[in-house]
# Entry
Amino acid sequence: MIAIIDYGLGNILAFANVYKRLNIPVTVAKSAADLNGASKLILPGVGAFDHAMKLLQEAGMREPLDEMVLQQKVPVLGICVGMQILTQGSDEGILPGLGWIPGRVRAFRNTLGAEEMPLPHMGWNEVQPANGHPLFKGMENDARFYFLHSFYFECAQPQHAVARAFYGVDFSCAVQSENVFGVQFHPEKSHHFGVNLLKNFAEL
# Structure
């Protein structure tokens, strides 16, 4: 069962509808109790880093998620701000992130090469996945996804970047460390590419 974490951010219904069309069991988790029995987790998010961390804590799911992800090794996919809060912190705010993948969220406007680019980075962009990465199975050569963001994930360890995109600067747009996955783009808005990625995650 895939549990979509509903802590007040992200298009929960869009993800649920994708999995229902694929006939993959899915549930929406609004509390710690709703996480029971989940074999995989989707952590969506939109908006600001600190706001996301506050809402996740207030929902009472921070500690149960730490247990599931770090101890039980349940696979989790963070999306957009849900990816950014996987890091240790962000230039956007002051709160610590989940710290599940070493790194920090950086601002395009403070990055040499991208400081003059229009913000947010919005629209379709090509994605270059690492060879053979399972999230991108079947679309390694032509992957395109929909982006909407002004900050990006800077991995502390280069091997954790499993896909890259270019917007004034080459940046990590998909990351992985063991059972923790994250994508900066919006698969729920990326047509068949996004459906394929969500299906691939379900089949890991």
